[in-house]
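Support reply, case 0932

Customer input (verbatim):
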Amino acid sequence: VQLQASGGGLVQAGGSLSLSCAASGLRFNKLAIGWFRQAPGKEREGVSCISSSGGSTYYLDSVKGRFTISRDNAKNTLYLQMNSLKPEDTAVYYCETRGTWGRGTLVTVSS
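Our regenerated output:
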């Protein structure tokens, strides 16, 4: 089972980034999956998650209206579109499902 996040980078405040998480070795279309993040010196927090069908989503209050989670079950891939980024969004972003964590991708938002 493997999850690989990608798409992080350096962006100015107000900018956008799109993260992807490619999954392999699991029945992706049967699993809810989510994005977490961990900022320097802070605990990991849940950012967003999506049901197996994509019909239900959850967002952390601080990202509502700015981030959009989606999935393509045909491609075994999870996405996170991040708009209107703020410096406080700076963190390593991870995808997770059923206790399996992917290698994170660093998002840095400069002010």
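We compared this against your earlier run and they match. Two observations from our side: Residues 9 and 107 are 5 Å apart (CA to CA). The two ends are 37 Å apart (CA to CA). Please reopen the case if you see a mismatch on your end.
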